[in-house]
Amino acid sequence: MPTTRLTDRAVIAVSGPDAEHFLQNILTVDLGALGQREAKPGALLSPQGKIMFDFLVSRCGENALRLECRADISDDFVRRLMLYRLRAKADISKQDQADIAVSWQADSAASHADSTVRDSRFQPQILRHYGAAPTSDATEADWHAFRIVSGVAESGSDYALGDAFPHDVLLDQTGGVGFRKGCFIGQEVVSRMQHRGTARRRVLLVSAASPLPAPGTDLVSGGKVVGTLGSVSDTRGLAIARIDRVKAALDAGAEITAGEAAVTPAIPAWASFTYPEAASAEDA
User: Fold this and answer.
1) Concatenated DSSP letters for the chain?
2) Which residues contact 277 (CB under 8 A, 6 or more apart)?
């Protein structure tokens, strides 16, 4: 199984008798459904429902949780958590020089050390290692290529924090939002999108016959922007796109381009959402 160390990630530990209750009340993810050897995606939202911080959360002992996030946002994330902590009996600290690795195409019988958890965003078994890990035999570029073809988006690479709703980046599809757990910051907006079925921006897979241009390149069809390119690995990439506009282009047989490259969009095979039956009234 390929393994690589992730140099751009950090770990924030939240521990104490009120740790889980405190996080459950502010984060999108339902910690009541979090297993002992599982890492689930989640987010801390603004009151308007936009993602301020994204992360993977896992258990790391009694009354202790581990939040793995981008290293460059970790200090801001700690400060935001401290702001919300108030009187909760919870200690919040960033682990300096955290050793994080990931293994993919892992055998189902692979041993699980106490510091190894399953990344639940992926259908094949993907393992996250904290501390002790197998020898690294792949590159971070190899890992991101696998993440891209798997249809799993991350902030920084695929979208800017403060600019996306959980539905946009498929947190509703990967178990990153607990719709039945009760209130959390931004919950009203996210629940309304879920119950009304109004999500129109979604992560799509895109492929081309030639190498794709840089992330941030617009996807265009018929002179209209239908999405934005995110992570890229040669001819494969991810994009956040207006699926109603993509559907209209596909129905019309119109070409969708990213720069000079003609692209073919696709919904990730594991996702449960579909293209809308008709274009929205806005685009009619």
Assistant:
1) --EEE-TTEEEEEEESTTHHHHHHTTBSS-GGG--TTEEEEEEEE-TTS-EEEEEEEEE-STTEEEEEEEGGGHHHHHHHHHHHHTT---EEEEETT--EEEE-S--TT----TTEEEETT-SS--EEEESS-PPP-S-HHHHHHHHHHHT---BTTTB-TTS--GGGGTTTTTT---TTS---TTHHHHHHHHHHT---EEEEEEEESS----TTPEEEETTEEEEEEEEEETTEEEEEEEHHHHHHHHHHT---EETTEEEEEE--TT------SS--GGG-
2) none
Say if residue 9 is in the same domain as residue 146. yes
Give per-residue pLDDT as tens, 31-41: 999 999 999 99
pLDDT at 277: 83
Quick one: pLDDT band at residue 61, thresholds 50, 70, 90?
very high
Q: Domain count for the chain, please give it.
A: 2
Find the domain containing 104 and state its range: 3-192
Residue that is last in its domain, among 163, 192, 221: 192
- Domain boundary among the residues 192, 227, 244 is at 192
CATH assignment at residue 238: 2.40.30
pLDDT at 237 over 60: yes
Same domain (yes/no): 169, 240: no
Domain harbouring 13, CATH code: 3.30.1360.120
Give the Cα separation of 81 and 87 in Å (integer): 12
